[in-house]
Give the backbone structure.
Amino acid sequence: MIINGLPGELVNANDRGLLYGDGVFRTMLVRNGLIPHWHQHYNKLQHDCSALALDCPPIKNLADELSLLTHSHPEGVAKIIITRGTGTRGYAPSVQYQATRILSISPFPNYPASFSSSGVKVHICNTRLGLQPRLAGVKHLNRLENVLAAAEWSDAHFSEGLLLDETGHVIEATRSNLFMVKNNSLFTPDLSRCGVAGLQRDRVIDMARRHGMKCKITTLQLENLLDADEVFLVNNVIGLWPVREMTGYKRNKFPVSLLIQDWLLNESH
Amino acid sequence: MIINGLPGELVNANDRGLLYGDGVFRTMLVRNGLIPHWHQHYNKLQHDCSALALDCPPIKNLADELSLLTHSHPEGVAKIIITRGTGTRGYAPSVQYQATRILSISPFPNYPASFSSSGVKVHICNTRLGLQPRLAGVKHLNRLENVLAAAEWSDAHFSEGLLLDETGHVIEATRSNLFMVKNNSLFTPDLSRCGVAGLQRDRVIDMARRHGMKCKITTLQLENLLDADEVFLVNNVIGLWPVREMTGYKRNKFPVSLLIQDWLLNESH
C-alpha cells in the first residue's frame, strides 16, 4: 500500500474520507504489471473528483506510484482512493487542503470460470437505492447502501445482488453495472439519479455502437428485465457475467452476452 | 485521541469506515470534564449501531476511554466514531470483525453568544436529501450530502443551511435539527425517510411534552416554515439557535425559542 507517495498502511483518523466519506475511488484490474484502460480510469477518477470539487492528483504521480505496486504485484486488483484529506472541524470543505491518496493492490478474487461462461445466480435486493442526482454515477466513498444490500444474502449460490431504486427502477447490481438484451439490442439503466457508472459499462456501450449493435440508456422496470432475452453484469474485475437465474427468471443460453464478452476481451488496450 | 483504547491518531487504511463509510458517530458536549446526557448519547449510539447491524462497544469501555480524554480536556466537544473495522475485500460485512472505536475531543467552537439570544441567518440549500428509510435518522458516516450542502455558502453571515428532501419537505439543517413554532405549538420534521435524529431534538420533544406544550412530528413544507411564528435549530453543541432570517423569512422576537432554550439549560443532567 502506498499512502501519499510513501509505503504504509495508516491514515490520519481525522481524514474526511473516514469522517464523512468525502472522497472517491476506483478499482482496476492489474495484468502483467499493467492496468488495462488506465487513461480511461484516470478520466473517470478526474470526473468523479470534480463532482465533489475535489482536486485530482496529476496522472503522472498516480501512475508512478501505482507502478511501484504493480512491479511487485503484477497480477491482481488495484484500488485508488482520493479523499479531501484532513481539515478543519465541520462538514464545510476547507479551501486549502491536501488530498489524501491511497493506492493498494489485492489478489484477484477467485471466481469460478463458469461465472463467465455459464452465468450467475442473482439475489434481488430489498434495499432500495435513494435518489441523489448530485452524486449519481460517481464512485464515491458513501457506500452504506451497497453494504446493506450485500449483507442481505449469505447463500454462496448468489454471486451478486440486483438493486432497484426507491421508485422501483432497475439500476445496477451491488458491485457491477447491468445490461439487458432484447431482440439483439442492448438496454442499460439511466444512472442520472443514482447508481455508479463503471468504466466497463462505458466500454460495453461504446463497443456495441462500434459493432453496430443498438444500445439504449433508459428506464428499466423489473418486469422488463424478467422478460429479457439475456441479462448480464459487468465491471472491470469480473469482466462480464451473464445472469443465469433470478427470482422469476431463468436462462441457459447467452449468445449476445458471450459475443460482447469476446469483444471486451479482444479489444486492444 | 484514543483509538481502540490506545492513544494515537492513525487508523488502518483498510478500515471500512474509510472504504465505505461503514460506521456511525456521535458528537457530545464536554463541560467540567463531564458529558451531559451521557446515557442518552450511548443509547443513541447503540440504536445507530444496530441499524447497521454493527456491534456497539460496552458503555463502560467507552466511558473509561472518554474519561482519559476529558481528564486532560475538561471543556470541548467529544466525538465517538464506531466503524465495522477492517475486513475482507468487498461490500458484504464479515461475520467476524473487530469494530474500530475512535474517541477525540476538540475545542468548543467559538460561536458568538448572540446566535443563541438574537438568532442566526440561514441559507436555504439547493442540495436536496435523498430518501433512504433504511438509514434515516441514523448518524452514520455517509455524509456527502451534508458536505455538498455546507459547501454551498461561504458568506459568514450564514450560520447554518436548511435542507429539504428531494420531494420538497423541510427536514433539518446541515448539522442541526429544526423546529417551528406556530400558535405556541411545536412542529418538527418527520425523519423516517432521511435526516439525522439528534439527541437535542429528542430532548426538546420530551421537554415540550413534560411542560404541556404540544409538539407534533410531521411533514413540513417550506411555506409552512416561512409562515411560522418562530423557527429554531438545535444540536448538542450549539444548544438552541433561533432563526432570525432566511430568504422570505425575518423575525426578531423568539419568546418560545428562548423559553425552550431555558428549559434545556436548566434541566438537571
